Amino acid sequence: EDKVVQSPLSLVVHEGDTVTLNCSYEVTNFRSLLWYKQEKKAPTFLFMLTSSGIEKKSGRLSSILDKKELFSILNITATQTGDSAVYLCAVMGAQKLVFGQGTRLTINP
Amino acid sequence: DGGITQSPKYLFRKEGQNVTLSCEQNLNHDAMYWYRQDPGQGLRLIYYSQIVNDFQKGDIAEGYSVSREKKESFPLTVTSAQKNPTAFYLCASSIWTRHNEQFFGPGTRLTVL
Fold it and tell me: Fewer Cβ neighbours under 10 Å: the N or C end of chain B?
């Protein structure tokens, strides 16, 4: 059975800290790994990763994929209160997205 | 503006009642999806549809039904057979050949009283 596991499930840090969110997967016919940010309603797209070792970067957020070890990390540097959200990892297999449980990130001022 | 709309935003129903959640998109996307989200469990796929008049069961289809009579619309009915329907329901759409790029609607929170 396809599986995506995120850790930690919950994380509370202070503004300005750097955080690393983890996503490991076992999905047949892997095609891509995606990160989403969800603030109370619709998830919004952050990154799509298809190749190992190539870092994707957007402002203070970055992500990388390791297809040999079957995991990805999402880094957020210099965190701000607006980064508080649930971060979802999803892996596209043959025909569908398989989602992890999400990591709830809380940034305290 | 192009996008996906879901209605209502909040829905309350009594046990034993069927209820239909609306999902409409004007992105001209072929594929549409319904997910259920429970606390601590991420999103789970209920049904998806690649084209009009065709749809497939996802991982947790029991107690749900869908129709796809128009490209723009993919309503989800939560039937009385669904044992634990209280959840957050998200609709998404994509170009079928790029179904890893799904766009999500704002969601409907269903509460069974």
Answer: N
